[in-house]
Amino acid sequence: MYAIVEMAGQQFKVAKDQKVYVHRLQTEEGKKVTFDNVLLLDDGKNVTIGAPAIDGAAVEAKVIKHLRGDKVIVFHKKRRKGYRKKNGHRQSLTEIVIESIVAKGAKKAKAAEPKKAAPKKEAAPKVEAPKAKAAPKAAAPKKAAAPKAKPAKADDLKKIEGIGPKIATTLIEAGIATFADLAKAKPAKISEIIADVRGNHVTDTWPAQAKLAAAGKWDELKKWQDELDGGKA
Predict the structure, then answer these.
(1) Residue 128 CB: number of other CB atoms within 10 A?
(2) How far is residue 181's CA from residue 214's CA, in Å, rounded to a whole number?
(3) Beta carbons of 35 and 58 less than 8 angstroms apart
(4) To the nearest whole number, what is the mean pLDDT of the chain?
(5) How confident is the model over 121-143, as pLDDT tens digits?
(6) pLDDT in tens, 2-50
(7) What are phi and psi of 78, to 5 degrees?
(8) Which residues, in sequence order, are bridge partners of residue 73?
(9) What is the pTM of this model?
(10) Is the preceding omega at residue 52 within 30 degrees of 0, hence cis?
């Protein structure tokens, strides 16, 4: 028996006792996790296809460990511009083992429906006595608008281990545009700002990395980043 199920934003064909590597999960090592977005089931005799998911079906798995994938080199070059940029990336992964595939009986958590507000009663319109027309006031001269201050040039926040293009854009929009700004921010506040960005982000070392970057200590920062795991020491 096998199933096609969506796990951490990816679709996998899985069977019992199979080991699978998925994007980093929030579940702790040794604990169980259930995936209820099952798209297809095959029990050897019948094939069931969901529309889009199969109601009542689920895949139960156990988290073995968290790890990082092999380093991938990303190299950018522009002809005749003298532009070259080389970055390394290691994907944060979670190793899980499939314990069982449930065809029926799994319950999906239902989202609480918002309560409907009671309709407001419309107040009767007030009849006001006609007012005497006031003499027109002389228009006050408009003040010239003060020129807007130009925003400071943003630093390349992607040089911090664990920060990608989408997170960098989100931080800049929230007012954290330079290494100095990031060095002053608290990890909890950073996590709150990037809460809507998909993925598992560890912000513990970001301010300390940004402090080294702001001070221009690139060699020291590079040596430290080689020992980090997605931003986590």
Answers:
(1) 6
(2) 9
(3) yes
(4) 83
(5) 666 666 666 666 666 666 666 66
(6) 999 999 999 999 999 999 999 999 999 999 999 999 999 998 888 999 8
(7) -115, 125
(8) 88
(9) 0.44
(10) yes
Question: Can you give the three-state secondary structure of the chain, one letter per residue?
Answer: CEEEEEECCEEEEEECCCEEEEECCCCCCCCEEEECCEEEEECCCCEEECCCCCCCCEEEEEEEEEEECCCEEEEEEECCCCEEEEEEECCEEEEEEEEEEECCCCCCCCCCCCCCCCCCCCCCCCCCCCCCCCCCCCCCCCCCCCCCCCCCCCCCHHHCCCCCHHHHHHHHHCCCCCHHHHHHCCHHHHHHHCCCCCCCCCCCCHHHHHHHHHCCCHHHHHHHHCCCECCEC
Task: Write out the two tokens for 53.
Answer: 């998911």
The CA dihedral of 166, 172, 178, 180, to the nearest 10 degrees, is: -110
Name the token pair of 149.
């201050």
Q: How is residue 223 written in tokens?
A: 């040596």
End-to-end Cα separation, the chain, in angstroms: 41
Q: How far apart are CA 171 and CA 182, in angstroms?
A: 9
Between the CA atoms of 170, 175, 179 and 183, what dihedral angle is there, to the nearest 10 degrees?
-100
Gap between the Cα atoms of 142 and 176, Å rounded: 35
- In whole angstroms, what is the distance from residue 29 CA to residue 94 CA? 9
Tokens of 74: 């990303």
